[in-house]
Amino acid sequence: MQDDPRDSLDNSNHLGSADAPDVGKTHNEHPYEQLTPEVVLDAVETMGVQCDGRLLALNSYENRVYQVGVEDGTPLVAKFYRPGRWSDAAIIEEHNFTITLAEAELPVVAPLRWDGETLHMSHGFRFSLYPRRAGRWPELDSEQNLRWMGRFIARIHNLGRLRPFQHRPRLDIQTYGHDAVEFLLATTFIPAELREAYTSLVRDVLAQVQAGFDAAGVVAQLRIHGDCHPGNILWTSDGPHFVDFDDARSGPAIQDLWMLLSGEREQMTQQLSHVLGGYTEFSDFNPSEVALIEPLRTLRMINYSAWLARRWQDPSFPINFPWFAGNRYWEEQILALREQLALMQEGPLVWY
Questions:
Q1: Which of 10, 88, 244, 247 is catalytic?
Q2: For the chain, what is the radius of gyration of the CA atoms?
Q3: Which of 5, 22, 134, 319 has the most CB atoms in a 10 Å sphere around its CB?
Q4: Which residue range(s) make up the domain with 167?
Q5: Would you say residue 352 lies in a domain?
Q6: Residues 116, 216: one domain?
Q7: Is residue 214 situated within a structural domain?
Q8: 80 bridge partner residues
Q9: Interval 184-240: pLDDT, tens
């Protein structure tokens, strides 16, 4: 396959600073407070779309995502990017990746182009438009569905291997683990009476995570979805399609597979065998990556806590995650991390 000329990212130059939405806000005002329904509808109409006034906020915390009604047409989905999180080049790189997948007839929801561009700006907010896709959460308790998922993810990874990301980060222990812990310990979220226990435990946990990565050895880094949990997979009678590549980054193939597994060890062993049975129909798989499943799950847990802490100034976070500031959350985190430590010490699942 020839290199995709879109990877040059030439269409990012007109967008200006990623921090533009901060201009004019008061000291305590969050940028999204300026993203009123009128601003959303006006932004969509700058693309030549005639809105009918219907606006439905969809479930999204990192960005703001809306279903927008269109006069005499199918509704569109408008995604407004969190100011300062990604550079223009990183967003467009993700767009180009999903468009490449869609053009290869893979079931992904890619951004729409207007005048050849996918990333736009209005009222200081960067946004993109997507076709609306319906579907339900996948039922991952059947061998057929798990194999189906494995086949599609393998095809995504085959294209992901063709070239690296240039503007998006890698999934690594430093970022998801050590940096996340350092940020948490610099805040007051962890209750004083639990701080020493959490600090000591997370040190042991990250050492075991490192041992898991060491056991896996050299693992190929490729362009992956990065956040392939069931909520980002819509299922129809035609099978799955994948949405929200916002966390796409470089990482091991197993990152897009382990979130399909749940239950006790025996259940996950069977599920993994079904997923990889489908995956290996279309792509090779390095079996040593199985050793990364519990370390990656552990990093996700730690990083999730840091994500909540980093976003706490966004008014929607205290409203939707009020338990984060309470003792019970941190008590449960300590218990969960102890369980993860034990799971990592058990050794990896067996793939048969």
A1: 244
A2: 21
A3: 22
A4: 143-346
A5: no
A6: no
A7: yes
A8: 64, 127
A9: 999 999 999 999 999 999 999 999 999 999 999 999 999 999 999 988 998 888 888
- 244 is an active site residue: yes
Instruction: Tell me the CB-side half-sphere exposure of residue 307, using CA atoms within 13 A.
Output: 13
- Rounded to whole angstroms, the Cα distance separating 259 from 296 reads 10
Angle between helices 192-216 and 293-310 (to 10 degrees): 140
The helix/strand/coil state of 147 is helix
Torsion of CA 105, 44, 12, 180, to 10 degrees: -80
| Interval 136-170: pLDDT, tens | 887 888 899 999 999 999 999 999 999 999 999 99
Q: Which of 7, 19, 22, 227 is catalytic?
A: 227
- CA angle 189-195-200, nearest 5°? 130
214 tagged catalytic: no
Residues 234 and 335 in one domain: yes
Evaluate whether residue 313 is within a structural domain.
yes
Are residue 288 and residue 188 in the same domain, yes or no?
A: yes
Q: What is the mean pLDDT of residues 2-14?
A: 34
Contacts of 225 (CB under 8 A, 6+ apart): 153, 156, 232, 242, 245, 247, 248, 256
